Amino acid sequence: MFGPKTRLFKIFGFEVKLDASWFFLALLISWSLAQGYFPALYEGLPKQTYWSMGVIGAIGIFFSIIFHELSHSLVARQYGLTIKGITLFIFGGVAEMENEPPNAKAEFMMAIAGPIASFVLSAGFYGLFLVAESANAMAPLLGVLRYLAMVNMMLAVFNLVPAFPMDGGRMLRAALWHKTGDLSRATRTASRAGSLFGILLMILGVISIASGNFIGGLWWILIGLFVQSAASAHYIQIQVRQVLEGETVSRFMTRDPVTIDGELPIRKLVDEYVYAHHHKMFPVLDGGLLIGSVSTRAIKATPREQWDQISVRQIMDPLDQKNAIDIDADAMKALELMRRTGNSRLMVINEGQLVGLIALKDLMELFALKMELEKDD
Ligand SMILES: [Zn+2]
């Protein structure tokens, strides 16, 4: 979501990944637990003990979040949805859905699974705490168990706030979707609630800072910003999907694109094509047959002094699933391919023959136009 991701392990076939920003969260949790929370609750323990409790608390949160996201993912799989993996980042975790839920019921069940899992986990930790307490266990163990019971309870309750894209917001959207049959309208309402909630969190953060709680306040502001921007991003995503789904690639493509011969030296490609047409990508042909595409990215990666010796064929990306799409494919599929590969242009193929190019810019322009024409409030 923010930076490079580290793959950790696979669980039930879902890949668990760690965003670099998670380390900041882990550090902040350990630090605030070791410096504030545990010393206030259990006085007179050695400093190192507080730090171990803090670190174990952070690790506990790590597994609690995975447990929460895993429950979403398992229910999603029940409904035939593909989950790419679970990523932990600074504001918690996210199960990466490849597509939207097929119906309101699926969405509702998927959404509610997370808070239920957190409630169950909270009860489990609290049960362990009670058992440990009656067995006169040591203070550090009691402290960590009690903390994890509380944190999972908070995770469940916070996620139940009806603000999209949080779980409660998804449940609200599912309920509205079920009632009206209009996913777009349901998303709009739930996203508005999400935006409002985000703004509310930011206001609370400012009040908190004004009353002297700087770290806590800053935290609320950051979470508020995150919820607010996630709500609007999701809303736009749904709109894009509605506009593009059901439209074929052929509607958006530019026909008869400029093509390059594979034997052309890079220098000539730059002088005669790149500077003349200002395109970022050209299809490459060999005797009339499409063999790949060459991008300005690949040209840049080649040392200038070799531009006369190296031919386009040597630096091109061969024709494959990453730079080409079928003319009858859904436009939404083209957009997803662009997002996944980072290629903002794709070659359009019909029975092995190059018939055109499709660009992200064209998809977005049509989307903006449609939004303008269909605006209803
Ligand atoms: Zn959740």
Key words describing this protein structure:
binds zinc ion; alpha/beta; four-stranded mixed beta sheet; elongated
Number of continuous helical runs = 12
Largest sheet: 4 strands, mixed
Mean of all residue-level pLDDT scores: 83
Instruction: Summarize the helix and strand pattern as letters.
Output: EEHHEEHHHHHEEHEEHHEEHEEH
Question: How many DSSP-defined strands?
Answer: 12
Rounded to the nearest angstrom, the radius of gyration is 26 Å
Helix share, percent: 55-70%
Structural class: alpha/beta
Strand neighbour order, sheet with most strands: 1-2-3-4
Distance between the termini: 32 Å
Shape label:
elongated
Oligomer: single chain
Bound molecules: zinc ion
Poorly predicted runs are: none
Strand residues, percent = 15-25%
Q: Mind sketching the topology for me?
A:
Layout: E1 5-11, E2 14-19, H1 21-41, H2 47-78, E3 83-89, E4 92-97, H3 104-134, H4 139-159, H5 167-180, H6 183-210, H7 214-244, E5 254-255, E6 260-261, H8 266-277, E7 281-286, E8 289-295, H9 296-300, H10 312-315, E9 317-318, E10 324-326, H11 331-341, E11 345-350, E12 353-359, H12 360-374
Parallel strand pairs: 2-3, 6-7, 10-11
Antiparallel strand pairs: 1-2, 3-4, 5-12, 7-8, 8-9, 11-12
Helix pairs in contact: 1-2, 2-3, 2-4, 3-4, 3-5, 5-6, 6-7, 7-12
Bound molecules: zinc ion.
Zinc ion binds at residues 68, 72, 114, 159, 167.
